[in-house]
Write a structure and sequence with these properties.
Part of the signal recognition particle protein translocation system, which is composed of SRP and FtsY. The chain is an alpha/beta fold and 390 residues long. It has 14 helices and eight strands. An eight-stranded mixed sheet has the order 3-2-4-1-5-6-7-8, with helices on both faces. α12 links the parallel β5 and β6. α7 packs antiparallel against α14. It binds guanosine-5'-diphosphate (GDP) and magnesium ion. Guanosine-5'-diphosphate binds next to α8.
Length: 390
Amino acid sequence: MDGYLGVIVIVAVVALLAVGGLLLFLRPGRKTPPPVVPPEAPTLPEEKRPAGADEEAEGATTTLPPPVKPAEPVVVEPEVEVPPPSAGRMVRLRERLARSQSALGRGLLELLSRDRLDDDVWDEIEERLITADVGVAPTRAVVEELRTKVKVLGSRTPEEVRGLLREQLLAQIDPDLDRTLHVKKHGERPAVVLVVGVNGTGKTTTTGKLARSLVGDGKKVVLGAADTFRAAAADQLQTWGERVGADTVRGPEGGDPASVAFDAVAKGIEEKVDVVIVDTAGRLHTKTGLMDELGKVKRVIEKKATVDEVLLVLDATTGQNGMRQAQVFAEVVNITGIALTKLDGTAKGGIVISVQRELGVPVKLAGLGEGPDDLAPFDPEVFVDAILGE
Ligand SMILES: Nc1nc2c(ncn2[C@@H]2O[C@H](COP(=O)(O)OP(=O)(O)O)[C@@H](O)[C@H]2O)c(=O)[nH]1
Ligand SMILES: [Mg+2]
C-alpha cells in the first residue's frame, strides 16, 4: 500500500512539473534565450569593419554579430582641386627658367663686357647664340646690331651691356606678337582648342595643364581624347580632367578620332561649357595620313563650332630635329600658336626665336616642368630676364 502511494506521489509531482514547465513555456512575451555565439564567429576589428556595418547591427532584431561582408572596393570620389589662375605663372616659374637658361646669358654678358671686342670674341658670341638654337639668321641680326651699338658706346658699363643684349633678344622674340589664347565663347558655343604635335612632345600633358589653368581662370572645360591609338592616352587625359572636374569624351580604342572630337564638341555645346580642348595622336606615319586625320578632325569640329586655336606642341629639347617635324604639322594644319614644352630641361632657349620665325606663329605657352601647374602663358620679358639674370 505504501509503495503504491509512493508511485502516485511521484507521478503527481512529475505531472505537476510537466504542466508548470508547459505553462512557463507558453507564457506570452517570453524571451528566447540568447543563442550561443560560436566562439569561432569571426569579428572584424573596429577600424576594418565595412562602413555601415554598425548601423545595420543596430537595426537588426537578432543579437548575432553583424555578418562579415567581403571587403567592398571603396569608391573614392576624385577630389576636385582648385588650380591657380594663369596670370603671373611665368614669374612664379622664373627660377626654373633661370636655372636652365642663365648660363647662356652669363656667357654672353661676359664676352660683351670684355675691353677688346675683336673678331674672335664676336665669333664666340655668334657661336653661343647658334648653340642655343637661336637660329642662323636671327643670330646674324643680333650680332650685327650689337656690333654697331657697341661701337657707338665705346666703353661699356655692365648695365649698358645688359641693356643692349636685353633689347636685342627681346626684339628677336618680338614682344608685340599677339600671344593671347583665343578661348572666348561664341555666344552659346564653346571655344575649341585643337592640340597637335609629334608623339612624346607633351601634348596630353599640356592639354591637361591647360585645362587646369582655364579652370583656374574660372572657365568650364570639356576634354576630347582624340588620340584613340592607345587607351592609355585617353586614361591619362581623363585623369587630368577628373582632378579639376572637367569631363573627358573618349571613344573605343582604335576608333575614329574625328568622331571623338565631334562628340566632345557636342557635349561642350550641350553642357554650355566655355572651352573644349581636343588632344590628338601625333603619329607621323606619312604626311598624307596625318593630313587626312587632322584635316578630318578639324572639318568635323567645324560642323558644330569654330576651331579657335590650333596649338602645336614642340619639345624644346629636340632642337632642329623637332623643328623639322613641327614644320610638317604646320603644313598640314593652320597652326595659331606654339606650346613650347620642357624649357626646364634644356639650355637651348633660343628655340623660342627660331621656331617663331620658321613657323610664323608666336609661342603662347611655356612648359616648365612635369607638375600640374608648370605651364605658363609665355611672357617674352620674363623669359629674357631669366636668361640674363636679374
Ligand atoms: N620636364 C618637363 N617634362 C614635360 C613637360 N611637358 C611634358 N613633359 C613630359 O613629357 C612626357 C610626354 O608627355 P605626353 O603629354 O604624354 O606627350 P604626348 O605623347 O605628346 O601626349 C611626359 O613624361 C611628361 O611629363 C615639361 O614642360 N617639362
Ligand atoms: Mg598623348
